[in-house]
Amino acid sequence: MSEVHWKTAREWALCKLDTLPSSQQNIHALVKRENWQSLGDEFARKRAGRGGGWEYHLHCLPKAAQEDFLNRDRIKRKSAELAKTKKKETQIVAQRSEDLTARQSLILQSRAMILREIERREIVDGTSRRQTILKLISEFDSDRDLPQDLRVLSDSLFQSALNASGRGNKLSRSQIYDWIKLRSEGGVAALAPKLTRKKQGAPAYLNQFLRFYCVPSKPTIAEALRYYGESLEDPQAAPSYDQITRALKQLKGTASWLDAHRGREGALALKARLAF
Predict the structure, then answer these.
(1) Longest C-alpha distance within the chain, in Å?
(2) Which of 60, 146, 261, 262 is close enough to 150 for a disulfide, judged by CB 3.0 to 4.6 Å?
(3) pTM (predicted TM-score)
C-alpha cells in the first residue's frame, strides 16, 4: 500500500476532499460514527513514532472523497512528469535553435508550447485529446477577434498559436495531430519547419549596401542605393535596384533576416518581425 494513502484525521481534514468534513473534529466524529478503528489493519493502524494516534487508509473515506484524492494525486504526478519533459525539451530547443533560422526557431518553440498546453489540459481537465484540441482551437479562434484584456488564452499561448502554423496564423486539428506525430517520431526538434527552398548566400555587395540602408533616418532602397553608388570609385559597379530587392528577399527565413532592419527599427519592431 502506498504511504500517501495513509493519513491522520487532521491530515485528511487538511486535504479538503469532496464530501469529506474539512475539520479535524468532524473527521473524528465520522471515525467514531463509522467505527473505522474496528475495520482491521488494512483500514486503520496505530501511528508509529512520536505522538502516536491513529492513521486511516484512503478506503475508509466516502467514494467521492476517494475519487477526488486519486484525481488530485494523478494530476500532481502527471504535472511533475510534464515539468520534467518541459525542462528537457527547453534544453533541446535551445541547442537546436543554434542551427535554425530565427523564424524556424520561433515556430519550433511555439509548436512545442502548444503541445505541452494540450497535455496539461488533458491532465487537469481529464478530457480526451480530441476534445482538448478542439477546445483550444475554438478558444484561439474566438480570441482572434477580442482585445488582449478579454482573451481566454494567456498572451504567450495566444502568440504561440499565431506563430505555430507558420502560414496563415491559423490552427487546425490536422496540423496539431501532424505535430504530435512529428514529435513522437523525431523528438521535439522535429517540430521545426523545413526550409521551403535552398537559401543562397547573400551577395557580397549586400553588406556594403546595408551600411547606407540600416540607419535611423530610414532611407528608401533607391536612396540608400544612390548613397552606396556614390561611395564607390566606379558608381557603375553598384548593383541594380532589382538586384538589391532580390537580395533582401533572400534574407527572409534566414538568421540574417533582421540584419536588413537592424538600425532602422527599434527592438520591439525587430521582435515583431520574427513572426514573419
Answers:
(1) 103
(2) 146
(3) 0.58
Enumerate residues 6+ apart whose C-beta is below 8 A from 216: 263, 264
Strands (E), 14-141: 44-46, 54-57
- The pLDDT tens digits along the chain (276 residues) read 578 899 999 999 999 999 999 999 999 999 999 999 999 999 999 988 777 899 999 999 999 999 999 999 999 998 898 888 888 887 877 777 667 788 888 899 999 999 999 999 999 998 999 999 999 999 999 998 899 889 999 999 999 998 998 766 788 999 999 999 999 998 898 998 886 544 456 787 888 899 899 898 999 999 999 999 999 888 888 889 998 998 888 887 676 777 788 888 877 777 676 654
For 130-166, give the DSSP string. Answer: HHHHHHHHHHHHHHTTS-GGG-SS-HHHHHHHHHHSS
